[in-house]
Amino acid sequence: MKKSILFLSAAVGLLAATSCQNFKKGDGGLEYNIVKDAGAEKAQPGDLLSVDMIVTSDRKDSLLQSTYDIGLPQIVNIAPDSIPGLYAGDYNSMFKMLGEGDSAIFRLNLDTMAAKTGQPKPEFADKFATFKVKVRKHFKKGDLTDSAMYAQVDEYFKAEIETLKQAEEGKLANYIAKNKLDPKKTDSGLQYIVKEEGSGNKPALGDTVVVNYTGSLVSGTIFDTNDADVAKKENVFNPMRQYEPIRFRVGHDPVIQGWTEGLQLLSKGSKATLLVPSSIGYGERGGGKIPPYAPLVFDVELVDIVPGPTDAPADSTAAN
C-alpha cells in the first residue's frame, strides 16, 4: 500500500513535499492549502466539478479512495447550503473553494462532522480525513436544465473513456517493460508467464479447476484476491468472505475469457501470471474496482483439476 500511495501522489503532479505544513484554518475545523489557483470562477450551488481526488486518513497506510485507480475523474455535485446536515467547513464547503484548473489539499475535521451532523464519528481515522483534489472541469448550472447539464457530463465521460481505450495497449506494454517480463502471447491477445511448471494434464472444457489468485491493475492496485494475508496487507480484506481457493467449471461457469483460456494452458500445480487485455476481460464497461478498458494482471496457482464429463456442451455465458 505504501508503494501505491507514493505512485498515486506522484500522479497528481501537484503536491509539494512541504505542502502539508501550509494549511490555513477555516470554518468548522476545516484546514486547507490551495496549491494552485488558476483564477477561474469558483463553483456555485448546483454546479458540478470533475475532479481527480485521493482520500486518506490520519492513520498509517490509510488510502481510502483514489480516482487514479480507476483512471476516471469523480463528479462532485455542489449542494445548496439549505440542505439539512450541511455546515460550514464540511465536505461540500471544500469544493466551493475551487474552480477549473485549481488544486488543493483539505483536512476535514471528523470530530466537528460528528458533532454537527449527530452521526457517529467514522472509524477509519483518528481526527482527520485528507482530500488531495485537482479540478479537471467545471460544469456551470446557470440557466441550464438538469437534462442539458447531464448531457454535457455524458459527452465528457464518453471522451474520457475513449482516452482509456486508446491508452490500454501502451499501459500493458509499459507494465511488461517495467517488470522486465518476456510473456508468451496467444491469438486472443492473452499474454502469460509460467513461473513454476506443474505436472500432468492441463484442464479441458468441462473440468473443474481449483485456483488461488490475486488480481491487480497494471498500476499495482489489487482489486481481488483469495489470499487473506494479501487482502489484509492491501486493505481489501472482507471479514464476511471465506478466503479459500476458487472453484469453477471451465467453459461452463461464467468467468472472463482470459481465465477460461489461460488456465487451460497450465498443468496442475503451475503458478503463472496472466496478462489479460480488456477484450477478454471486463471490456468497455469494467466492473467494481475495474475501470473500462483496463488490462489486468492475475497471479494464479492451479491447485487442482477435477475431471468432468466430456460430452456436455459449454455454456455460452462462460466468456462474459
From TrEMBL:
E.C. number: 5.2.1.8
Keywords in alphabetical order: Isomerase, Rotamase
Single annotated GO MF: peptidyl-prolyl cis-trans isomerase activity
Coiled coil regions in record: none
PROSITE patterns tied to this protein: FKBP_PPIASE, PROKAR_LIPOPROTEIN
Gene3D superfamilies referenced in this protein's UniProt entry, alphabetically: 3.10.50.40
Keyword Zinc: no
SUPFAM superfamilies: FKBP-like
Domain PPIase FKBP-type: 206-306
Name of a matching Pfam family: FKBP_C
Catalytic activity: [protein]-peptidylproline (omega=180) = [protein]-peptidylproline (omega=0)
InterPro entries: PPIase_dom_sf, PPIase_FKBP_dom
Similarity annotation: Belongs to the FKBP-type PPIase family.
Xref: PANTHER family: 39 KDA FK506-BINDING NUCLEAR PROTEIN, FKBP-TYPE PEPTIDYL-PROLYL CIS-TRANS ISOMERASE FKPA
Protein name as it appears in the record: Peptidyl-prolyl cis-trans isomerase
